[in-house]
Amino acid sequence: MDIDSLRRAAKPGFLDGQMLIAMPGMADERFARTVLYLCAHSSEGAMGLVVNKRARNIDFPDLLVQLEIIEKDEAPHLPERVGKIGVVKGGPMETARGFVLHSTDVVIGASTLPIAGTIGLTITLDMLRAIARGEGPANAVLALGYASWGAGQLEHEIRENTWLHGPLDADLIFGDDHETKYDRALKTLGIDPAFLSQDAGRA
After folding, report:
1. For residue 39, is it within any domain?
2. Domain count within the chain
3. For residue 11, what pLDDT is reported?
4. Least confident stretch, 40-49, 58-67, 85-94, 188-197
5. Which pLDDT band holds residue 194 (cuts at 50, 70, 90)?
6. 200 domain residue, yes or no
7. What is the secondary structure of the chain as a DSSP string?
8. Band (101; pLDDT cuts 50, 70, 90)
9. Which domain holds residue 47?
10. What is the CATH number of the domain that holds 84?
11. CB atoms near residue 125 (< 10 Å)
């Protein structure tokens, strides 16, 4: 997967920087009740990160230790906001690979891919090192793995009422209340989850 090529091919009308919300009838259990941030979308395909599925049994300081960015005995002494950075299951592809989705008050040169507004994506360890030093962005979340679609696949799934899409509130990316994000995402589109049928929109 080459995010840069997807971004270069993007044209107006594509959904970069928007959210995808799984419809209640989502057949793929990996994406049931998911909210995704769409990082790249073009005629060549799409790539996004799930932002409402907490990674279990690991937190951000643990990952810094595993990646040898800090020593184990340094973990308790990290700045408080570093310890609060969320780790989510970004998707089923390359689940050992980390993606830092963050506010663009701090960027790592050409390694940071601006997405939309004040949101950027950095894949290199340099961003994790900056965060560990207390020099990272104001808001960040680390996603393990990603979701991807081939050319035309996401458009087909949207036509089949698999996904809803719309603008994304930053708190749906960076907030830690993952259990409520799905319902809150629906409400940002003016949809009451209690009245959303699994067969909504189907003939």
Report:
1. yes
2. 1
3. 53
4. 188-197
5. confident
6. no
7. --HHHHHHT--BTB-TTEEEEE-TT-S-GGGTT-EEEEEEEETTEEEEEE-S-BPTT--HHHHHHHTTSS-GGGGGGS-HHHHT-EEEE--SEEEEEEEEEEETTS--GGGEEEEETTEEEE-SHHHHHHHHTT-S-SSEEEEEEEEEE-TTHHHHHHHTTSEEEEE--THHHH-S-HHHHHHHHHHHTT--GGG--TTTT--
8. very high
9. 3-195
10. 3.40.1740.10
11. 17
Of the candidates 39, 16, 36, the residue with the CA atom closest to the CA atom of residue 26: 36
Q: With 90 as the cut, is the pLDDT of residue 46 above it?
A: yes
Number of neighbouring beta carbons within 10 Å of residue 84: 12
Q: How far is the C-alpha of 121 from the C-alpha of 22, rounded, in Å?
A: 22
CA distance 178 to 61: 19
Residue 67 lies in a domain: yes
Q: Is the pLDDT of residue 79 over 80?
A: yes
Which two three-digit tokens encode residue 193? 């989850």
Domain assignment present for 132: yes
Q: Is the pLDDT of residue 10 over 90?
A: no
